[in-house]
Amino acid sequence: MDKYKFIRSLRNYPLTRQQAKTLRGQALAGDVDGAIKGLRKCMEGNAS
Which among 46, 11, 40 is positioned nearest to 24, based on CA atoms? Predict the structure, then answer.
């Protein structure tokens, strides 16, 4: 996934401000795969 598409898609998830900023920074640094993995972890944490 393109890093800019990923950053725009973050709006669709119920993330805290800190989570969104962390994932955005990770994607901008070039680690989109890591940011996607982090997003999955955040969603698992919010579900429980």
Answer: 11
Please name which of 4, 11, 1 lies closest in space to residue 33, comparing C-alpha atoms. 1
Two tokens, residue 18 = 């800190």
- Residue 32: count other Cβ atoms within 10 Å of its Cβ: 19
pLDDT at 48 (0 to 100): 53
Domain range spanning residue 27? 3-47
Q: What is the pLDDT of residues 24-38, one digit of tens each?
A: 999 999 999 999 999
Report the candidate in 42, 37, 12, 6 with the shortest Cα–Cα distance to residue 24.
6
Number of domains in the chain: 1
